[in-house]
Write a structure and sequence with these properties.
With about 280 residues, the protein is α+β, with helices and mostly antiparallel strands. The chain has helices spanning about 1-35, 75-80, 215-260, 265-275; strands spanning about 45, 55-60, 80, 85, 90-95, 110, 125-135, 135-140, 150-155, 160-165, 175-180, 185-195, 200-210.
Length: about 280
């Protein structure tokens, strides 16, 4: 009877101690997590010049022939994929003396050219990256006439818009730069849209880079705090459970070996570790 009361008392003390440890861990974790939620979100902004790019990768499309579909041609080498469907296809166009549109880096440009009878009316030219970028930009043109506006939109891996920039008057040849910078380095796809016009989106010298702003110190502090809190909590719980059954099983084995006919001595300690 005394042994059973003592066991109940010890179990109650350990339960209260474990609850206090868990409560402290929860409060510490919450306190560490809160500064992350109060941080200002990363900014996304437009770029009007390629000079702000840190060591950019550039695709000038000049390794392809004239009138060739781009598609996955740059997937292996640069991680860039262009659409290749009847409703949205991108292909090259080489310089011609008879045409007003001239490449920025001769001889090729690329333009949005859906299969007839499909058009580019309200259908943007898109492309995706296999890895995230912080800087993306290109030189834009329309190959036709003035008075056309352009919208460039950046999306993250979940296809959520990060930000956009606009150009009021797109030139005939790709001579004006449009770009977007995301300080968190989340850009995974882009869309260039000329809106409600059949004039095709046209670009040359696609540039991109990955140079995000370093994460703030509060994030690393929160991780360290949560780790240190969980470690002692797990140690205390494991030590408690390990010590209890070990101490209980030792007299059980002794009672059984000393008196083979005594069922009472064996039954009492056997029930005790079951409750533990």
């Amino acid at each position: 009877m005394l042994r059973r009361k003592l066991f109940t008392f010890i179990t109650s003390i350990l339960t209260i101690f474990a609850a206090l440890c868990v409560s402290t861990a929860d409060m510490t974790t919450y306190a560490a997590y809160w500064p992350q939620r109060s941080q200002s979100p990363a900014t996304c902004s437009s770029l009007s010049a390629s000079g702000s790019f840190p060591s950019p990768t550039t695709i000038n499309f000049d390794d392809l022939g004239n009138a060739q579909t781009v598609g996955t041609h740059y997937q292996a080498s640069h991680g860039v994929i262009f659409p290749n469907f009847s409703t949205s296809r991108v292909q090259t166009y080489a310089n011609s003396a008879a045409e007003p549109t001239q490449a920025r880096s001769a001889p090729n440009i690329i333009f949005h050219y859906p299969d007839f009878p499909n058009t580019s009316i309200n259908v943007p030219m898109t492309f995706t990256f296999s890895s995230a970028k912080s800087h993306v930009g290109m030189y834009v043109g329309n190959g036709d006439y003035g008075g056309i506006s352009a919208t460039l939109i950046a999306y993250d891996v979940d296809n959520k818009e990060l930000c956009r920039t606009t150009l009021a008057d797109v030139p005939v040849s790709p001579t004006i730069f449009m770009g977007i910078y995301d300080s968190a380095g989340r850009i995974r796809s882009m869309a260039l849209d000329y809106g409600n016009t059949a004039t095709s989106e046209l670009i040359d010298d696609l540039m991109f880079a990955y140079a995000p702003v370093a994460s703030s110190t509060s994030t690393s502090t929160a991780t360290a705090t949560a780790t240190q809190t969980r470690t002692p909590t797990a140690t205390v719980v494991n030590a408690t459970h390990t010590a209890t059954p070990t101490a209980t099983r030792t007299p059980t084995a002794t009672a059984t070996q000393s008196s083979g006919s005594s069922t009472t001595a064996t039954a009492t300690p056997t029930a005790t570790p079951t409750r533990t």
